[in-house]
Specification:
six-stranded mixed β-sheet; 28% strand; globular; P-loop_NTPase; ATP hydrolysis activity; ABC_transporter-like_ATP-bd; Amino acid/amide ABC transporter ATP-binding protein 2, HAAT family; binds adenosine-5'-triphosphate
């Protein structure tokens, strides 16, 4: 039922610097309340896909040259990143991007710039601390002195401060020990179930991503080459051979 689709990407092409065609017709649809993974190796186009959705390509000299993007049936491809945040679409960038000189709590507060009510902001902060107890204990620490896992949690927590309905997570596992990756993904799953946040997750860590998502798209050289439910992909022989490192 198309009414339950929160995000639809319809055949988008993306060109960088006016000449480099990076996305060659990417389509995907994201059901409300799901966790959808975009998988594939280095340079496959995962980050570019997320940046196209959140309209963050301009800073990279990129543009969508074909296709369209709809949020609950309405075109969003001409909305600014901050208008998208107001509509509930928030991206957590690769590499965490916490402000190193700010404390964890100050970082979280930067995520609430679209909210006006002090009561709402305080309630959101409590909510974030409830999901990420580690951030509460580290709230007065400068982000630079926290661990990679805490910085990733801080980046996701900051997104949650904006009351999003759709969070685009770019490579949350990057540089983290497997146990920390599990911890982060468990919290993502919790937010998905209890707060009804829909997630689109770009990941090179196919194994971990499929464990926590409902549906997956596999990208290669700017195209979707396969898609299916997470359990179908995880048991698919080609996926096992090429992406899960087992034959
Ligand atoms: P990674 O995991 O390394 O981020 P990815 O799947 O997210 O990989 P993208 O970052 O989307 O891939 O990159 C897709 C292709 O676009 C790559 O070939 C990359 O070199 C190219 N690319 C990315 N950003 C730019 C840019 N600003 N200018 C030109 N080419 C770019």
């Amino acid at each position: 039922d198309s009414k339950n689709i929160v995000l639809n990407v319809n055949g988008i092409e993306v060109i960088y610097n006016h000449v480099i065609l990076v996305l060659k017709g990417v389509s995907l649809s994201v059901p409300e309340g799901s966790i959808v993974a975009i998988l594939g190796g280095n340079g496959a186009g995962k980050t570019t896909t997320l940046r196209a959705i959140s309209n963050l390509l301009k800073a990279e000299r990129g543009e969508v040259t074909k296709g369209s993007i709809d949020l609950r049936g309405e075109r969003i491809d001409n909305l600014s990143p901050s208008d998208l945040v107001k509509r509930g679409v928030v991206q957590v960038m690769e590499g965490r991007h916490c402000f190193a000189h700010l404390t964890i709590e100050e970082n979280l507060m930067t995520g609430s710039y679209t909210r006006k009510s002090k009561g709402e902001i305080a309630a959101n902060l409590e909510k974030v601390y409830n999901y990420f107890p580690r951030l509460k204990t580290r709230r007065t620490s400068q982000a630079a002195y926290t661990s990679g896992g805490e910085q990733q949690m801080c980046a996701i927590g900051r997104a949650i401060m904006a009351n999003p309905s759709l969070v685009l997570l770019d490579e949350p596992s990057m540089g983290l020990a497997p146990q920390i990756v599990e911890e982060v993904f468990n919290i993502v799953q919790d937010l998905n179930k209890k707060e009804k946040v829909t997630f689109v997750l770009a990941e090179q860590n196919t194994n971990m991503a499929l464990k926590y998502s409902d549906y997956g798209y596999i990208m290669e050289s700017g195209r979707i080459v396969m898609d299916g439910t997470a359990s179908d992909l995880a048991s698919n022989e080609d996926v096992k051979e090429f992406y899960l490192g087992v034959g």
